[in-house]
Amino acid sequence: MNLKFLWVATIAFLLFSCHQNASHNHTGEAEHDHEHGVVAEEEHDHEHESATEDDHAHETTVAENEHEHEKIQYTVYSEDFELFAEADAMITGEHANILAHFTFLSNFKPLESGKITAKLIVNGKTTSQTLNEPLRKGIYSFTLEPATAGEGTLHFNIETEGKNVEVVVSNVDVFANDEELHNHDHGAEPSTVNATVFTKEQSWKIDFATAMPQEQAFGTAIKTVAKIEPARGEEEIIAAKASGLVLFSNNNLVEGKKVDNGENLFSISSSEMAENNIGVQLVEAKSNYETDKANYERKSELVKDRLVSEQELLSAKNTYETSKAVYENLSKNFNTSGQMVRSKMSGFVKQIFVSNGQYVAAGQPLLSITKNNKLLLTAQVQQRYLSVLPSVISANITNTNNKKTYTLDELNGRILSYGKSATDNSYLFPVSIEIGNHAGFAPGTFVEVFLKTITNSKAITVPNSALLEEQGIYYVFVQVTPEMFEKREVKIGGTDGLQTEVVSGLSADKRVVTQGAMQVKLAQSTGALDPHAGHVH
């Protein structure tokens, strides 16, 4: 009985346990399914939101890209100005800013004042704006709204210092919309390899210039040295006309002093000398002159009454004229104190050969005076250049003091001659050049001379100031834009003191820095800069 009851109780417990497990499993699955559904919905909603945000961000970027475009640069050179402008892309109906830099080509300094009108002409339609003054020195900021699409021209009418000048930019593209702008081929970007940024604001602050290389006849240039001497007829040496003691007329008579024609310089006194006393000679000459004059006048009256013969009158006349000439010569150059030494031309005292109180003999040099208006250069040329000396047509002359080089035309000079034989002991051939002394050259000093020969061959040349040298390698800075310059190695040939031949590395259509190249080099050492740095947009 007890066993049967235990068996029934066990079966009942097992049945109850199975029912509870089934209920639990159903509830767990439902909860799991519910949680999965919630997570799935959240992930789906998140993905949807993310996709929406990405789409929105993409649309925003596209919209921004459609309205933010690279600046377009224009560079134009007129007779008077350099124009460098950075402008927004021109789109019909949209405002475009033009930041224009105006530089005088005469000195490469900014246009500081003046009224400028910018006119955009496209298919006969004009859009313009006038500015009465710059945004700041050299910089004008224009805003134009193109009325029609197409290729046009941009005109800048400049009114300054009483002059009207026009600078024209050709081939200005105006687009109908952003899509047309985006599809337009803007050409290759300028290379920035080995390039240096040097802004207009920087170049305006220094001595700066750019220029195109010259393609010109460039023959052999003979480099030599020449001694400066006064030109023939430009110097005079004054000598003593009698023996005596030299007395300066004033204590300011020194070398370099300016003197006028006829000015008293010295007196030579012989009053205390027993022999060759010029004072005694002058008194004696005056006495003889007055006696002979009276005798001649007396016989001139007696000959009328035939009291003296014609021969006696002629002899008296000759004696009178001789004594007159002696007296006038002495009285002209001497007085009772001695000889008065006067300057015979206006100029400068070059050299004084005597000292105050010194005894001098007749004919002894006292001093030299030079006009210094014209100078004679005597250059010495080696024998190997003898064959080209007949073709020497001009010269460039360098002042060794200030290192400035002048052309022969600037000095109103000319080639006088060249030697046909070598000078004694030097085995060199002289070349004589006459120049006007407009550059402060001093006689007795030396200058560097480049003798230029005529030729039919042409070469590309640049000013010497455009060349920089590093360890025997020469290079120039080639202009990419007026604010970017590329350092370029070149091979050079001969030089005439002003220009140097470029054998390779540079073409005639590449503008180079001719002044301020060293400052551009220093800017390169500071590293790359933003080309728009310092600009106001």
From TrEMBL:
<dbReference type="GO" id="GO:0060003">
    <property type="term" value="P:copper ion export"/>
</dbReference>
<keyword id="KW-0813">Transport</keyword>
<dbReference type="GO" id="GO:0030313">
    <property type="term" value="C:cell envelope"/>
</dbReference>
<dbReference type="GO" id="GO:0022857">
    <property type="term" value="F:transmembrane transporter activity"/>
</dbReference>
<keyword id="KW-0732">Signal</keyword>
<dbReference type="Pfam" id="PF25975">
    <property type="entry name" value="CzcB_C"/>
</dbReference>
<dbReference type="GO" id="GO:0016020">
    <property type="term" value="C:membrane"/>
</dbReference>
<protein>
    <submittedName>
        <fullName>Efflux RND transporter periplasmic adaptor subunit</fullName>
    </submittedName>
</protein>
<dbReference type="GO" id="GO:0015679">
    <property type="term" value="P:plasma membrane copper ion transport"/>
</dbReference>
<dbReference type="InterPro" id="IPR058649">
    <property type="entry name" value="CzcB_C"/>
</dbReference>
<feature type="signal peptide">
    <location>
        <begin position="1"/>
        <end position="22"/>
    </location>
</feature>
<comment type="similarity">
    <text>Belongs to the membrane fusion protein (MFP) (TC 8.A.1) family.</text>
</comment>
<dbReference type="InterPro" id="IPR051909">
    <property type="entry name" value="MFP_Cation_Efflux"/>
</dbReference>
<dbReference type="InterPro" id="IPR006143">
    <property type="entry name" value="RND_pump_MFP"/>
</dbReference>
<feature type="domain" description="CzcB-like C-terminal circularly permuted SH3-like">
    <location>
        <begin position="460"/>
        <end position="521"/>
    </location>
</feature>
<feature type="region of interest" description="Disordered">
    <location>
        <begin position="40"/>
        <end position="68"/>
    </location>
</feature>
